[in-house]
Amino acid sequence: MSILTFHEVSYQNILHELTGEFREGVITTLVGPSGAGKSTTLKHINGLISPDTGEICFRGEPLEQMNLLDVRKRIGMAFQSAPMIPGTVYDNINLPKSIFGESLPREEAEKLLQQVELSVELDRPVKDLSGGERSRLGIARTLVNRPDVLLLDEITASLDYRMVQEIEKLILDLQQELQTTIIWITHDLEQAKRVSDDVWFLKDGRLIEYGAFKELASSGQAETQAFLKGESV
Ligand code: ADP
């Protein structure tokens, strides 16, 4: 069953009539060359930008008719750089609550850190964390509101290979445990092969193909075959 559907979504001269869907409870990677429109697509999903024409529906309801704060609670987003505010680990994991004037109980914060296998003190200054630790904290922070959908924008791009493997395993484990729908931008085809159930393949702002990753291999499209071989498309 699909959780998100795009119907002829166009935006400026960047996205052109994207029509496709994302299945609930699986990992879909967004792949394609740089400048294909992957980040712009992700920004549409959490309401950072809206289509000029066309419609995006979340569980059948047009995103534009939903309350934006509600959208942000149900659709979380983690970035490569995992931007942190100055202060402690707790200050950062509490951020999604503090912007609503609430605060996250410390024991819940501890549980989230365990969930992402980050063993640091809540009072530790965030500036002392390594790149891998910041990535984990960034992921924990997106889980605070228990989102239905998790958007990941190149979250492993700046990490070394060992850390990439660890973060991939973490996301796969979280997905199994929480059954969260994950939409994951990656420029790394090997990573897409390892983690994808489904895939959206974008190029020049167009959705060339989407569906089960395994089925891409039998696609008759020359662009898809070239992409899968790692050739520039
Ligand atoms: P990808 O994530 O696949 O690399 P992007 O979605 O970041 O692609 O960008 C798609 C295209 O849109 C690129 O040509 C980029 O230069 C352009 N673009 C991205 N953001 C903006 C913006 N805010 N204003 C104008 N053009 C933009």
Task: Record the SSE blueprint.
Elements: E1 2-11, E2 15-23, E3 27-31, H1 38-45, E4 53-58, E5 61-62, H2 68-74, E6 75-79, H3 89-93, H4 95-98, H5 106-115, H6 131-143, E7 149-153, H7 161-178, E8 181-185, H8 189-195, E9 198-203, E10 206-212, H9 213-216, H10 222-228
Parallel strand pairs: 3-8, 3-9, 6-7, 7-8
Antiparallel strand pairs: 1-2, 1-4, 4-5, 9-10
Bound molecules: adenosine-5'-diphosphate (ADP).
Structural summary, described in words:
The chain is an alpha/beta fold. It has helices at residues 38-45, 68-74, 89-93, 95-98, 106-115, 131-143, 161-178, 189-195, 213-216, 222-228; strands spanning 2-11, 15-23, 27-31, 53-58, 61-62, 75-79, 149-153, 181-185, 198-203, 206-212. The strands form two sheets. It has a six-stranded mixed beta sheet with strand order 6-7-8-3-9-10, sandwiched between helices. The chain has a four-stranded antiparallel beta sheet with strand order 2-1-4-5, with helices on one face. It is globular and about 55 Å long. The mean pLDDT is 92. The site of adenosine-5'-diphosphate has 9 residues, from helix 1.
Give, in spatial order, the strands making up the sheet with the most strands: 6-7-8-3-9-10
* N/C terminus separation: 31 Å
Instruction: Give the number of helices.
Output: 10
Order of helices and strands: EEEHEEHEHHHHEHEHEEHH
Cα radius of gyration in angstroms:
18 Å
